[in-house]
Amino acid sequence: MRPFDLTAPTTLDDAVDPGHTVLAGGTTLVDLMKLDVLTPQRVADINALPLRGIGTGTGGGLRIGALERMSDVAEHPDVPVAVRRALALSASQQLRNMASVGGNLMQRTRCGYFRDTTMPCNKRRPGSGCGALDGNTRTHAVLGTSEHCVATHASDLAVALVALDAELRLVGADGPRTLALADFYRTPGTTPEVENALRSGELITEIVVPDPAGAANSTYVKVRDRSSYEFALCSVAATLDVRDGIVTEVRIAAGGVATMPWRLPGVEAALRGEPATEASFAAAAEVAAHGTRPLAHNGFKVPLLQRTIVRALLELTEGTAA
User: Fold this and answer.
1) How far is CA 298 from CA 133, 212, 228, in A?
2) Integer Cα distance of 308 and 313 in angstroms
3) Alpha carbon 239 to chain centroid distance?
4) What is the DSSP letter of 46?
5) 266 is in which domain, residue-wise?
6) Rounded to whole angstroms, how far apart are CA atoms 318 and 316?
7) Phi, then psi, of 312 in degrees rounded to 5
8) 192 in any annotated domain
9) How confident is the model at residue 58 (pLDDT cuts 50, 70, 90)?
10) Would you say residue 39 has pLDDT above 60?
């Protein structure tokens, strides 16, 4: 790790500074600094800022302060099941006790080529190439990729929140603004180093789930190589509303298979108005294969995504998600 200057702002005005890198729980940033993947000259510890709390916001909806720890949010009864499950299946208990939810949404990819400074990586060093393309691609993305980057997004929490139409409250030099989380992330295209819409010096202050009641019947299913402390090969967050046996509303997002938390509107459209049966779920899940671009070692993720969608929807119809 290289030398750096550390500050600890106590007000948002002091924290909004494009010249420093923000530290909350540090569970991603410190790792990357140790690897020399990130080498900030100035780090701002923002833990003294008033960015905590879980409850109903002034404009309605469920508000979660950006500095709330993952473990606390995972145990809060007012938080939708999909979010609680996504958090409980993330990292380890020790890391969940330390990591903030805002930091989790900002975490960088776990792609081994990004983290190995001896390898080319367009995220780490734009224009250097993508080492994964000719390497081991088993854990890489099949959706939202480009010839410049095929790295998956790492956050479980982001997948659940995208399925719940969550919004971010942001503050920067130009004042506060609100942005849908689904619009926050960027596919790599020709600029994989631009991962999100956060402006220079801007901070996430809180996460808002606009309609927590509409997320009452929600779940998060994660498929991984081992049962703990492992990133998703595929994950699905879903909400489902069924009336008289017919799907009236559904929202689905996927993780572990894409370069960002991936909403599946085509699958949702195929389900609305259809019977809430396994056959209907399987037929709609076939739409998830549209636009996939499997690589040498990750073609299995396409059928895995389809099966995971069906599993999540069956949980919601069989009452096993609560």
Assistant:
1) 12, 35, 21
2) 9
3) 16
4) -
5) 216-318
6) 6
7) -65, -45
8) yes
9) confident
10) yes
CB of 240 closer than 8 Å to CB of 317: yes
DSSP string of 218-232? EEEEEE-SSSSS---
Are 256 and 203 part of one and the same domain? no
The alpha carbon of residue 131 and the mean position of all alpha carbons in its chain are separated, in whole angstroms, by 23
Distance CA 278, CA 271 (A): 11
CA nearest neighbour of 8 among 43, 36, 33, 37: 43
Q: How many domains does the chain have?
A: 2
Instruction: Using the Cα atoms of residue 310, residue 314, residue 320 and residue 321 in order, give the sign of their dihedral.
Output: positive
Q: Return d(Cα 190, Cα 173) in angstroms, integer.
A: 28
Nearest to 282 by CA among 248, 255, 258, 317: 317
Read off the pLDDT of residues 122-158 as tens digits, 9 standing for 90 and up. 999 999 999 999 999 999 999 999 999 999 999 999 9
Q: 200 to each of 16, 18, 43, 64, how far by Cα in Å?
A: 9, 5, 14, 23
pTM: 0.97
184 in the same domain as 221: no
Reported residue count of the chain is 322
Q: What is the CATH number of the domain that holds 283?
A: 3.30.390.50
206 forms bridges with which residues in the sheet? 65, 169
What is the pLDDT, as a whole number, of residue 321?
A: 58
| CA dist., res. 114 & res. 13, Å (int) | 33
Torsion 39-204-190-264 (CA) sign: positive
What CATH code is carried by the domain that includes residue 168? 3.30.465.10
197 in Cβ contact with 186 (< 8 Å): yes
Query: Structure tokens of 230?
Result: 């492992």
